[in-house]
Structures are given as structure tokens and as C-alpha cells.
Write a structure and sequence with these properties.
By secondary structure, this protein is α/β, with parallel strands linked by helices. The chain has 24 helices and 20 strands. The protein binds thiamine diphosphate (TPP), 1-deoxy-D-xylulose-5-phosphate and magnesium ion.
């Protein structure tokens, strides 16, 4: 193999222009690499503060990622980053630096590894704790593989299932433990404590990895390029899985991130005009605190997301009533079942997308026992910039299959409060509350109520009944006004409980000629499907047409733009309903 041609001088500018930066990295001198690390940090701070995204985690892995690309030959040797939120440096070192101009924008660079973006991205991840399993599989398939896993991700049970298998494997896998002592709460659990002991004793004390049978190299200063490289080169010599324990600083090199002791600027939001209403998350946190003060049996659980799910106010007021289990959604749900069996009313606060991991526990541990557990799903529906794996668009369709479980979708801050109150007062079985990312619309007053169902407006003529789920109520009202101007009477109602839907909706349906439903979840199997069943079962001969998201993995972009693209903004709903009404009047198929 001919020696790589060495550029005159390696710096960020030359690296950004270089289609194969790793080759240049391998030729660079230590001083150049140290200077490059500084430039990469400045670049990250500028790009992420502009576009939003994961900052602290990426600042912490600059040297580690440089070393990985110097020692391993990606993509021949697969580099997998667990969770993938810390893969920005990897993107920069694999020819995607210029694409940071459109980081997390529609059509632009993804905030996570993306197979369509680069052959250097092995898996399209973002749900934590999967990398070691991918690595085990890839190694068994004959691929040399390196997996980088964080101390937070290591709290997930899936990692331990993988380690159980890897420890006895005869295939080479380099497991790089990126230990920054941070997931969200560094005090959660024994894994974090053991890693701290390994750091404190310089690896000389009891060592879980060695006890399981892994060769263990470390702990290594993850910002000392030479030390990391030496360890990786040594690890590469092993013909079986080996653990390299790197100690890094989350937010390293950027003062505001280093000083942010809560989460070292784990993720930052894109700057922009603040929404008019309060954030859904904030409203939930405030209402839960009030309810917990009234109801001593209420306790809350989070899977390493205390602040993002709004539980901080409760944790500050009643620290003993909030349990952070680490990145362990399955354990959170099964432990909630235990808490409920013990007479408490647990509230599991989790992002919609992460509850899917624990579906079995929802079905068999909570559902089967008809336990009073309330699941609060933040980031339900379209989440936006975090892309395909973060959209919370499957929750209604999946959860509807759990016998006895009821799902509520508040339309605004006011209904969030009242529905949460109903949910935690329900001791007959599991309840779910789902709401999206962002700010809640202004409260919408009902003009009439039929059971659980709020009628938000009556059409001038009983043409169309529009039944909306959660925040689509505000959108539906705007569409209804536009349709009235076009001569189509539209009644809008919000069932509030989107599963099972109150039969009062079937009675309303019977008074109209066409029913349209709107939801920000998958259309097939979702709320609209359930409502169509209800109307049919009630013997009401009115066609029901569900509108929602297609059953596809939707790319990143802003929430508003994605909803627009799928006809779930006011203009889209207006057009769809007008089309359906026209077709219906002409006697066409619905
Ligand atoms: C299954 C799952 N639950 C929750 C999250 C949200 N989440 C993203 S990163 C993160 C912390 C990861 O900690 P760690 O692996 O130590 O990486 P660090 O950010 O510290 O580098 C969490 C909880 C997730 N991605 N996946
Ligand atoms: C918490 C985390 O790292 C991801 O799940 C992601 O960044 C979510 O972003 P938001 O919390 O801004 O929705
Ligand atoms: Mg960490």
C-alpha cells in the first residue's frame, strides 16, 4: 500500500475540504491534532448553538473520535456510536463538515448517524443501549467492529444482555466505554458508582468487566490523544471482545457547558421566537406537582430524563417521590407495576418514542393486571428536528391494543390539567396522557359537552363532523372556519379520551353526513381507525375518513413543516375535507 500523501498542514479548513479526512489525520503530528481538536470544538459550538442539537456529548468525544479514526479504518472497520447523539465529530471526520450548514434541517444533515448520509454510519440509531448488540451481530457476521457506549447508555438492560453474550464470544469487538460520569443524574444506580470506583482506583480495585471475563484497558484520560490511541491500538490486537474505559468530560472546552452542572449543555435548542403559550412539559410538571400535593399515593418515574420530562419541580418538592431508574424504560414500567401492586399510583413520564421499548411491560405487567399506572408521553406525534426515530407517532396505534388501557390527548394546557387529574384518579387500570413537543395552544372553550366529548363548534349545517385528537383541535377549528366560508358546515368535537372514544361521538356522527378524524399519529390503526369501528359498531351509516400520518419513517425537519407536508395544518385539513365532501356529494368512494 502506498503511503498516504500528507497535506502541507492539517487544520479545520483543509479537513472540511478533504473528502477522506481520516487519511490526513493519520499523517498529522501531535501538535497539529491538538490544535485541530480546539478548532473542532469551536466549529461544534458555533454550528450547534445555531442549529440546536447535542453539544456537551460531542464536545466530550473530540479526541476520542480523532483517535478512533486514526487507529481504525472506517468503513472497513465499523464504528458504532451508541445512541448516536455524539456522532457529530465522526461526521466531521468523514467528509460531512460542510453539511453542518443545514444541521437538523429538512433535507440537511441528520443529528444522528444516518446510513443514507454516509457509508461510515453503520446503524440509524438514537434509542440508547443498542450498540453492543449491533456489534455482537456484526462481529458474528465477520465484520471488525468498534462500539462506543456512554456510561448513561450502559445503564440500559440491553447493554447487559449484549455484554453477557460478548464476554464469551471469540470474535474481536472493541468496546469503548465513554465515561463522562453523566447520563442525566450521575448518582443514579450502581453502574455509575462502579465506574466512579474504577476511575478512583485507577482500575486496580474490583472490576465488573474483568469479573465477567473481558480484558479491560483503563481507565484512560479520554482527552489525552496519545494515551487513547495507544489503548485502542492495544485493544485492536485482541481476537475477542475487549473493554477500553475512557474518561472524558462532557462539555469539555466550552466554559458554559463545563459550568452547566445540570447536564453540561447535553442538548441545546435552536434559538428562535418563543412560542406564545406555556410549554406542554412545563404545564405537566406544574399540574403533577399540585396533584401530588393532594394525593400522597402519587409517585413518578423517569428513565434518565428528569428535566426533559418536566419532573424537576416534583423532585424538588418531594424528592422521595421521584424515582430515576437510568436509561431503563422496561424497568421503569415493570417497577411501576410493582409500585401499583404495592398500593401507589405511579406516573411514568417518558417520551412517546421511548415507551415503545417497554411495550411488553405495558401489556403484560401493567395491562394484564389492570394496574393503575399513568403513562405521560411527552414528544408525542411529530417531534421535528430529531427525525425518524424520535417521532412519537406510533403510541396510539400500539397502546390501543392493550386491553383496559385508556388514552387521553389534551388539546391545550387546561385540558392537560383536567385529564391528568382524571388519569391519576383512575384506580381501575392503566391510563395514558400524550402531548407534543413545544408550546400548548391557547385554551379552547367547549360550546357543549356530551359525556367526555367536548363540542368546540357546531357547523351552520350538519354536513361534516370533524373529530380531532389533542392539539389538532386548534388546527381543526381554523379549517372549519375556512370550510364554512366555502359553504360546508363543520362541527368540531374533541373526545379528549382518544381511546376508547366515548359513544357520544357516534350519536353526533349520526347527525352528520360525513365524519373526518385528524390526529398526529399513524393513520392506520390509530385514533381514527378506532373511531370508525365505534361508529360502525353503533350501526351509524355515516362514512368515517381518518386523516393522520402515513405509516412511514419520517425524516427530520420542523414539526410545523412535517405536519404541513402531511396535510395536518389548517390549509391541509381544509383541502382534504373539501375534497372528501365534494366526493361524498358526488356519491364517490370515501
Ligand atoms: C431508550 C432511550 N431512552 C432515553 C434516551 C434519551 N437520551 C439521549 S442521550 C441520553 C443520555 C446518554 O448518556 P450517555 O450514554 O452517558 O451519553 P453522554 O450524553 O453522557 O455522552 C438520554 C437519556 C434515549 N436516547 N434512548
Ligand atoms: C434527550 C435526548 O438526548 C434526545 O432524546 C433528544 O435530544 C430530544 O430532544 P428534545 O428533548 O429537545 O426533544
Ligand atoms: Mg455519559
Amino acid at each position: 500500500m502506498s503511503a498516504p500523501i500528507r497535506p502541507a498542514h492539517l487544520d479545520l479548513e483543509s479537513l472540511l475540504e478533504d473528502p477522506t479526512p481520516a487519511a490526513s489525520l493519520r499523517c498529522a503530528q501531535p501538535a497539529e491534532l491538538r490544535a485541530l481538536a480546539g478548532e473542532l470544538r469551536e466549529f461544534l459550538v458555533e454550528a450547534v448553538c445555531r442549529a440546536g442539537g447535542h453539544l456537551g456529548s460531542n464536545l466530550g468525544v473530540v479526541e476520542l473520535t480523532i483517535a478512533l479514526h486514526r487507529v481504525f479504518d472506517s468503513p472497513r472497520e465499523s464504528l458504532i456510536f451508541d445512541t448516536g447523539h455524539q456522532s457529530y465529530v465522526h461526521k466531521l471526520l468523514t467528509g460531512r463538515g460542510r453539511d453542518f450548514d443545514a444541521l437538523r434541517e429538512a433535507g440537511g444533515l441528520s443529528g444522528y448517524p444516518s446510513r443514507t448520509e454516509s457509508e461510515h454510519d453503520v446503524a440509524e440509531n438514537s434509542h440508547a443501549s443498542t450498540a453492543l448488540s449491533y456489534a455482537d451481530g456484526l462481529a458474528r457476521a465477520g465484520r471488525p467492529v468498534v462500539a462506543v457506549v456512554g456510561d448513561g447508555a450502559l445503564t440500559g438492560g440491553l447493554c447487559w444482555e449484549a455484554l453477557n453474550n460478548l464476554a464469551t464470544s471469540d470474535r474481536p469487538v472493541v468496546i469503548v466505554l465513554n465515561d463522562n460520569g453523566r447520563s442525566y443524574d450521575p448518582t443514579v444506580g450502581a453502574v455509575g458508582r462502579h465506574l466512579a470506583d474504577l476511575r478512583d482506583t485507577a482500575g486496580t480495585g474490583p472490576n465488573l468487566f474483568r469479573a465477567l471475563g473481558f480484558p479491560y484497558l483503563g481507565p484512560i484520560d479520554g482527552h489525552d490523544l496519545t494515551a487513547v490511541e495507544e489503548a485502542l491500538r492495544a485493544a485492536k490486537e485482541f481476537t475477542r471482545p475487549v473493554v477500553v474505559h475512557c474518561v472524558t468530560g462532557k462539555g469539555r472546552g466550552y466554559r458554559p457547558a463545563e459550568l452547566d452542572l445540570a447536564d453540561h449543555l447535553h442538548a441545546v435548542s435552536r434559538p428562535g421566537p418563543a412560542g406564545s403559550g406555556a410549554q406542554w412539559t412545563t404545564v405537566f410538571g406544574e399540574r403533577l406537582l399540585e396533584l401530588a400535593a393532594e394525593r400522597p399515593r402519587v409517585v413518578a418515574l423517569t428513565a434518565a430524563m428528569l428535566r426533559p420530562t418536566g419532573l424537576l419541580p416534583l423532585a424538588e418538592a418531594f424528592p422521595e417521590r421521584v424515582i430515576d431508574v437510568g436509561i431503563a424504560e422496561q424497568h421503569a414500567v415493570a417497577a411501576a407495576a410493582g409500585l401499583a401492586l404495592g398500593g401507589l399510583h405511579p406516573v411514568v413520564a417518558v417520551y412517546s418514542t421511548f415507551l415503545t421499548r417497554a411495550m411488553d411491560q405495558v401489556l403484560m405487567d401493567v395491562g394484564l393486571h389492570r394496574l393503575p399506572v399513568t403513562f405521560v408521553l411527552d414528544r408525542a406525534g411529530v417531534t421535528g428536528e430529531d427525525g425518524a426515530s424520535h417521532h412519537g407517532m406510533w403510541d396510539i396505534a400500539l397502546l390501543r391494543t392493550v386491553p383496559g388501557l385508556r388514552i387521553a390527548a389534551p388539546r391545550d394546557a387546561g385540558t392537560l390539567g383536567s385529564l391528568l387529574r382524571q388519569a391519576v384518579a383512575d384506580d381501575e387500570g392503566p391510563t395514558v396522557l400524550r402531548f407534543p413537543k413545544g408550546s400548548a395552544p391557547a385554551d379552547l372553550t367547549a360550546v357543549d359537552s356530551r359525556g367526555d366529548v367536548d363540542v368546540l363548534r357546531f357547523g351552520k349545517r350538519p354536513d361534516v363532523l370533524l373529530v380531532t385528537a389533542g392539539p389538532l383541535a386548534a388546527t381543526g377549528l381554523r379549517a372549519a372556519v375556512a370550510l364554512e366560508h366555502r359553504g360546508i358546515g363543520v362541527t368540531v368535537c374533541d373526545p379528549r379520551w382518544v381511546h376508547p372514544v366515548d359513544p357520544a361521538v357516534a350519536e353526533l356522527a349520526a347527525k352528520h353526513q360525513l365524519v373526518v378524524t385528524a390526529e398526529d399519529g399513524v393513520r392506520g390503526g390509530g385514533f381514527g381507525t378506532g373511531l370508525a369501528q365505534l361508529v360502525a359498531d353503533a350501526g351509524v351509516p355515516v362514512p368515517v375518513h381518518p386523516l393522520g400520518l402515513p405509516s412511514r419513517f419520517l425524516a427530520h425537519g420542523s414539526r410545523a413543516a412535517i405536519l404541513r407536508e402531511h396535510g395536518l395544518d389548517a390549509t391541509g385539513l381544509t383541502a382534504s375535507i373539501q375534497h372528501l365532501w365534494t366526493t361524498a356529494e358526488l356519491g364517490g368512494e370515501l
